[in-house]
Design goal:
about 575 residues; six-stranded mixed β-sheet; 6 helices; disulfide bond; five-stranded antiparallel β-sheet; Bulb-type_lectin_dom_sf; single chain; protein serine/threonine kinase activity; Agglutinin, subunit A; alpha+beta; 41 strands; 4 domains; membrane
């Protein structure tokens, strides 16, 4: 007999089917269980998705926000949707079944250890979506045989535990999504380490594995009351979140509760590696993040992927190293940067001859994690560079305090000194193909040359203004505006500019180059595209007629350390030199 369709309630009984378009709704109406596709009418996780998933989400919130996904590693293809059903199998498991192929896409995997001697192995159990958002399978005697809270994904709801069962050995570990639209297992995990350290750890799952945040259970008796006090003081979290820790003979875990049952909150492990506490704002109709750990975007290990530089104060924080490009730009846009960046040009490494590769410096960065070896022999930076160049697998080196360090393979967690969360004076030299180096050198020299020109201009203007102010400081008259019939050309080619024209040339004085030397210097361009620097004078005043005469005199002066005076503007009580 084919299963009958499930109605929209909180229970799926044996013999009932559950297909795409059906859903279970908790008795409180707060949560729903059904099939969904990330990005399909989903504001919070837009764009495309690999397929369809069985998930639990907030039922009364218009932004579909999954809090649990059953089959993150096995999405259901669109062509298989009609043949896909959720039902309780003959052995009492909750399964996603492809009726066309009679294959099991996902199963709750209830084992004999989950059942007591009195529990039947027949399909007499039922699935219930509780008001807490926990999906459970109950026996006829109301014994919980399985629950979604014991199989977490990237989200922990109030009442869900992170930790382990000392009796059964079950360890509840949360794992981030691969991207904003792909629930597959991502790069980061949070859980209680059970190998003797007994620490709550948030770390990088891939190679190389790295823990970047931890909390020792031994510190809980002191830190937990302090954390509760801080959350109580904060108006955003007061009465909303209460953290708890338990350590007894049967279990050791961390969890939080929410006294405000009307609120909607969840703790998530983001694709970036940050742990975030989110609350739904009814007024703004959007999720608000009220707690983040770690605060620094660059703190999670390898958050930008290999061969990248992370700057926590920048947006976006990740960028490729010189002569590298994004391995998968589309994945980057979706928050998946595990592929990082790739070389544009392969390195030149042939054991039969010397390599033509060169090294490019990246200043003020933290040195990479991962495989690293120190070379004691090299006494100079040149010898350190040669040691790296002689090894085909060497991709970077650093020479600090007479110590040579080299890196082999991919480079992870190179973070820029932003003057806020990260400070570093180290310089990392990355290995590049010679054909990439000239362009990178040119690109890197442009800001330097521009800086030299700007500095010279500012110094020259300073000398010019000093001479001008020494001349005009004898007078204390108020300036007058430039009359409409004033001449536009002074002697020796010094031009009297109109204030409106000067505003257009400087984009309304928006590009500031520097200050000092009796005024502020701005970047500008004349109508013929000639680049100029414009200085507003400060701290002196005189009559317009005398100001014009003395500017003309300065136009005659030529000196190696003086920038040529092109023109001036006298407007109201403001004087400007160009």
């Amino acid at each position: 007999i084919p299963p009958t369709a499930a109605t929209e309630n909180d229970t799926l009984a044996p013999g009932q089917s559950f297909a795409v378009g059906d859903k279970l709704v908790s008795s409180t109406g707060k949560f729903a269980l059904g099939f969904f596709q990330p990005g399909a009418g989903n504001v919070s996780k837009s764009s495309t998705s690999p397929g369809w998933y069985l998930a639990i989400w907030f039922n009364k919130i218009n932004v579909i926000t999954p809090v649990w996904v059953a089959n993150p590693e096995r999405p259901i293809a669109g062509l298989d949707l009609r043949a896909t059903q959720l039902q309780i199998s003959e052995d009492g498991n909750l399964v996603i079944l492809n009726n066309a192929t009679q294959s099991v896409v996902w199963s709750s995997h209830i084992t004999s250890s989950n059942k007591t001697n009195t529990t039947s192995t027949s399909s007499s159990g039922k699935a219930i979506l509780l008001g807490s958002g926990n999906l459970v399978i109950e026996s006829p005697s109301s014994e919980v045989l399985w629950q979604s809270f014991d199989d977490p994904t990237d989200v922990a709801l109030p009442g869900a535990k992170i930790g382990w069962n000392k009796v059964t050995g079950l360890n509840r570990v949360g794992i981030s999504w691969k991207s904003r639209v792909d629930p597959d297992l991502g790069s980061f995990s949070v859980g209680l380490e059970t190998n003797g350290t007994r620490m709550v750890m948030v770390g990088h799952r891939g190679y190389p594995s790295q823990v970047y945040w931890s909390w020792s259970p031994e510190e809980s008796p002191m830190q937990m009351p302090a954390l509760r006090a801080l959350l109580k003081i904060n108006p955003q979290t007061r009465g909303l979140v209460v953290p708890e820790s338990v350590d007894n003979s049967e279990e050791e875990y961390y969890m939080y509760t929410s006294p405000d049952e009307a609120s909607s909150t969840f703790l998530s492990l983001d694709t970036s590696g940050q742990t975030k506490l989110n609350v739904w704002s009814q007024a703004n109709q959007a999720w608000q993040t009220i707690y983040v750990q770690p605060i620094d975007l660059c703190r999670p290990y390898a958050t930008c992927g290999p061969f990248t530089v992370c700057t926590g104060s920048a947006q976006p924080p990740c960028e490729c190293m010189e002569s590298f490009s994004r391995t998968s730009p589309q994945d980057w846009e979706l928050g998946d940067r595990t592929g990082g960046c790739s070389r544009r040009t392969p390195l030149d490494c042939n054991g039969n001859r010397s390599s033509t590769d060169v090294f490019h410096p990246i200043a003020r960065v933290t040195l990479p994690y991962g495989p690293r070896s120190s070379q004691d022999a090299p006494a100079t930076r040149g010898e350190c560079e040669s040691a790296c160049l002689s090894n085909c697998s060497c991709t970077a080196y650093s020479y600090e305090d007479s110590k040579c360090s080299v890196w082999h393979g991919e480079l992870f967690s190179v973070n820029k000194d932003d003057g806020i969360e990260i400070r570093s004076e180290y310089t990392l030299y990355i290995r590049l193909a010679a054909r990439d180096f000239p362009s990178s050198t040119r690109d890197k020299r442009k800001p330097v040359l521009t800086g030299v020109v700007i500095a010279a201009s500012v110094i020259g203007f300073g000398l010019l203004m000093l001479m001008l102010l020494l001349v005009i400081s004898r007078n204390r008259f108020s300036w007058c505006g430039v009359s409409s019939n004033a001449t536009n050309e002074g002697s020796v080619g010094v031009v009297a500019f109109g204030y409106a024209n000067l505003g257009r040339a400087t984009k309304n004085f928006t590009e500031k180059l520097g200050a000092g030397g009796f005024g502020t210097v701005f970047k500008g361009a004349l109508s013929d595209q000639t680049s100029v620097t414009v200085k507003r004078l400060e701290g002196a005043s005189q009559g317009e007629k005398q100001f014009r005469a003395e500017v003309s005199a300065l136009g005659l002066i030529q000196h190696i350390n003086q920038v040529k005076l092109v023109g001036f503007c006298c407007h109201g009580e403001e004087a400007t030199c160009i």
